Amino acid sequence: MLIFEPRDPNFETRVRASFARLSLMKTIGASLTRVSPGEVEIELRLRQNLTQQHGFLAAGIVTAILDTACGYAALSLMPAGPEVLTVEYKVNFVSPARGPRLIARGRVTKPGRTLTVCAGDVFALSNGSEKLVATMLATMITAEQR
Amino acid sequence: MLIFEPRDPNFETRVRASFARLSLMKTIGASLTRVSPGEVEIELRLRQNLTQQHGFLAAGIVTAILDTACGYAALSLMPAGPEVLTVEYKVNFVSPARGPRLIARGRVTKPGRTLTVCAGDVFALSNGSEKLVATMLATMITAEQR
Amino acid sequence: MLIFEPRDPNFETRVRASFARLSLMKTIGASLTRVSPGEVEIELRLRQNLTQQHGFLAAGIVTAILDTACGYAALSLMPAGPEVLTVEYKVNFVSPARGPRLIARGRVTKPGRTLTVCAGDVFALSNGSEKLVATMLATMITAEQR
Amino acid sequence: MLIFEPRDPNFETRVRASFARLSLMKTIGASLTRVSPGEVEIELRLRQNLTQQHGFLAAGIVTAILDTACGYAALSLMPAGPEVLTVEYKVNFVSPARGPRLIARGRVTKPGRTLTVCAGDVFALSNGSEKLVATMLATMITAEQR
């Protein structure tokens, strides 16, 4: 695991304020459970209205929490001011996204002034054990706030 | 555009029945607007509770309709019986996912017995014109139904 | 197919001059067979020293000609001065990269000042017919020349 | 790092025999420096005839050694008999592929009977320090040998 020094000591406040403005995260009931420099964790309880045909969390929602965790991992290392947008991501789905709880962990692989590369994983939590559900490799871009 | 011959004449009924079982698609209000052999279209009206911080459709939901369109494009070419699961996808986001309407088009690039490669695009529709929002390249796998 | 207007009328000369500086392309014997605004074609004759275990062109070389075609498709739409670097790409391999000739076609999906999204395909040519070998989705970045 | 138990005690012999049949690896002068269960390392000395316009290792060759390391990481966990083919990969390029030595490390993220997901990194080695050059996320498939 890489150790990063945040450029803005208030990174956590900034990340939490931005997360609070994401309507989708509120709609699905996701919560920001950890914000460290270059690493962010989001947790979600499976709800029936977010599932696919087998009762597992739909791929798009697995992706949404993973993308959000990766984006904020990137933002946590940036100076105050700009925001982070997703350029692209790739996700592999390796096992069913079972409930009751899922956790997404995003981390910075390579920070940069313009582009930041992130990686992340989603795990299904059950009886204290974690099982890998999906893994992401993503490119984020720094953008001036609108 | 490739022309495909469906192996099951009832492909549309099959795809529509499967789509009806996707809770997330119901939750977000997506509808299946076209099912052709190897090509499927899904439409969505932007709702405020699905947005990110700028009021655009969140990337995860853009991805969800794109993935669903690609998955059913693959399923439309398959014989009755098996289902399709997403192995992985990559999405590039190229412009804001503005409302009021978004349309996802998925198509088969290369059908296969085990793996099918699909591509898809999401467009924002406004005043009769279409603007590219995101583009996907995906791998689907044929699986026996549970 | 999108129609693009080049910003530099000398785009072809510029692309050809840059291609001539790529040692790897010379080493593998690739040639630039077409340079249009936003679309570039590269051809390669299969050589035994570029193969994998079955005598097909190795995936890395399939990727190399595809990446080069996509990068120059992006460069063809740019003003004189900056160059193009590859941020990332994803490639799906769909059938064996058989000889005797392979052709890579890269095209711009979405041009941009900083980032350009491209797509490309490699085909195996044999007896006048083309068979899809691989398909790419890539992100390119504009960079000041060193 | 995950710990894997090989299903075939002769995995290293099998991987080395297969690597020896890859003409491209011979052509570029790559060598297999480590074969562990689920993790493989390949090393390459930069040669001028494999470079792009700035004298760095071309992206396609960076990808070739990364793909080979990932593919053999997958093969190392399989029983004797079948081989591994690349379904698709995504690579992010994060810093110049400088010489004199580059090292690719591929590892299994999720083994499977049909599909195996792998991740890998290429590092530039210079004066005893390693710098990340590129990172890959890949899908491999088990195939009966021809």
How helix-rich are the residues of chain A, as a percent range? 10-25%
- Bin the strand percentage of chain A: 35-45%
Radius of gyration of chain A: 15 Å
Largest sheet: spatial strand order of chain A: 1-2-4-5-6-3
Termini separation of chain A comes to 33 Å
Q: What is the annotated CATH architecture of chain A?
A: Roll
CATH class of chain A: Alpha Beta
Q: Which superfamily, in CATH terms, is the homologous superfamily of chain A? A: Hotdog Thioesterase
Structural class of chain A: alpha+beta
**Whole-number count of domains of chain A:** 1
Number of helices of chain A: 3
Order of helices and strands of chain A: HHEEHEEEE
Oligomeric composition of the shown chains: homotetramer
| Greatest interface and its participating residue counts | A-B, 34 and 34 residues
Strand count, sense and barrel status of the largest sheet of chain A are:
6 strands, antiparallel
Low-confidence segments of chain A, given as residue ranges, are none
CATH topology grouping of chain A: Thiol Ester Dehydrase, Chain A
Could you tell me the mean pLDDT of chain A?
Answer: 96
Could you walk me through the main structural features you see in this protein, from its secondary elements to its overall organization?
The structure is a homotetramer of 146-residue chains. Chain A has helices at residues 11-19, 23-28, 59-76, and strands at 31-36, 39-45, 83-93, 101-110, 115-126, 129-143. By secondary structure, chain A is an alpha+beta fold. Chain A has one domain (11-143): Roll (Thiol Ester Dehydrase, Chain A), CATH 3.10.129. In chain A, strands 1-2-4-5-6-3 form a six-stranded antiparallel sheet. In chain A, strand 5 (115-126) and strand 6 (129-143) form a beta hairpin. In chain A, helix 1 (11-19) runs antiparallel to helix 3 (59-76). The radius of gyration of chain A is 15 Å and the shape is globular. Chain A starts with 10 loop residues before the first helix and ends with a strand. Chains in contact: A-B, A-C, A-D, B-C, B-D, C-D. The A-B interface holds A 18, 21-24, 26-27, 48-54, 58-61, 63-65, 67-68, 83, 85-93, 146 and B 18, 21-24, 26-27, 48-54, 58-61, 63-65, 67-68, 83, 85-93, 146. Strand 3 (83-93) of chain C pairs antiparallel with strand 3 (83-93) of chain D, so a sheet runs across the interface.
